[in-house]
Amino acid sequence: MDDNFYAFWLTYLLKIPTSKLWASVHKLGSVKSLYEANIADLEVLTEAEKIYFEQMRQRTDIHDKWLNIKGNPYQFLPYNSNLYPKRLLELKDAPFGIYYEGMEEIASLNERPVVAMVGARNCTIYGSELAYQIARELGRQGIIVVSGLAAGIDGASHRGCLDGGGFTLGVLGAGIHNVYPKSNYQLFIEMRKKGGILTEYPYETKPLPLLFPRRNRIISVLADFLVVIEAKEKSGSLITVDFALEQGKDIGAVPGRPCDIVSGGCNRLLQQGAKCILSAEDVLEELMDSGMLQKRRIEPTKVNTDLGLAPKEKMVYSCLRLEPKFIDEILCQLKLPVWEGIQILTDLEMKGIVQQNPHHYYYRKI
Questions:
Q1: How far is CA 96 from CA 7, 78, 362, in A?
Q2: Is 116 exposed, middle or buried (0-12, 13-18, 19+ CB in 10 A)?
Q3: Where, residue-wise, is CATH 3.40.50.450 in the chain?
């Protein structure tokens, strides 16, 4: 067996902290030496962990899985591969290997700006739409968007980036064939084709609660900048924030009303010095200020002249942006009777060019 197998085998040791396994590798010299070590020499492990280690070493099915791995749709990248994302090696408990699907652009994780977007699963409609709009513009600008493929803000961020023609990466808290939640299965399928799916866990691993906080360190370390949209004061999103701060990352948060429980965590982050994020332009400016993105003038999205709009429709459309805008603000900008402005907005919505949310905010779909 080569070192790639031993790295593969180590990903199965879910009951031993990866940092302990790395400490043993550094002491013994290689992953193969760890696999072949006398159990008594693994002093960093507890007695229970030593028993577990020996039990896992006796499992023949892991050898069989390795021999059959080339017949699977996913791929396995050991930590010493040239394609392995170098950002992961910054972790003291870096995965010994990652399982992934899609990701033709996996090498670009070492080269292009990456923004992580996280937030509440039970988010508001406004929060979901804002996440979608920000991610769509980031995708259009060539920024990689990474999130956890969870319900709510995660899913909206992935969808927005895909619709913007960008590359988005989902980091799972389970094996690559155990999509959670099931409601995101269609999104998962699309991301396998147009984006990427990544996990440190073997493909058959179930989505256990203890695995999700661990995956958050991967989301944060892959990113140059972390954006939080709607998070309670005690939430999984703030675990990602803690990891990001330990890793020296910059944090941005979208403000919410003080009375909104779902925005309590974001507002607290802003009090503590997080960057205030109101639009994709704010994120792009942060990336430029930190040198992660080449300096350039950020232009408002231009009217698509290929939509075949009448002059008045084009005028109304030009007042809209990717971020939702309240109807009163739109009507105030138009030099048209209110009834006519409303009628044109309705016509644009029926054409699928404009979207309205339940709170009478409008934004561009194209």
A1: 5, 6, 46
A2: buried
A3: 106-289
